[in-house]
TrEMBL record:
It comes from the Bacteria. Residues 6-61 form the HTH cro/C1-type domain. It comes from Limnobacter humi. PROSITE patterns: HTH_CROC1 (PS50943). This is Helix-turn-helix transcriptional regulator. The lineage of its organism: Bacteria, Pseudomonadati, Pseudomonadota, Betaproteobacteria, Burkholderiales.
């Protein structure tokens, strides 16, 4: 399973979904899906925009987690 750390990154910077949407140009719905970890796909341009906004690497935003644990 892929875990998305967007909620943690947003919390650290005290950003709301609308703040991230405005800063990245991404649709609020996409950000909400990632925030709630219910997204089933994401565009590479969206990953790039989020990594640039949070000044992080892809591995800081997403993590592969073992489902058996």
């Amino acid at each position: 399973m892929i875990k998305c750390h967007l909620s943690r990154l947003m919390g650290e910077q005290k950003l709301k979904v609308i703040d991230v949407a405005r800063a990245t140009g991404l649709h609020r719905n996409m950000i909400t899906l990632l925030y709630n970890e219910t997204a089933t796909r994401i565009d590479l341009a969206a990953i790039e925009a989020l990594c640039k906004l949070f000044n992080c690497k892809v591995g800081d935003l997403f993590e592969l987690v073992d489902e058996q644990g």
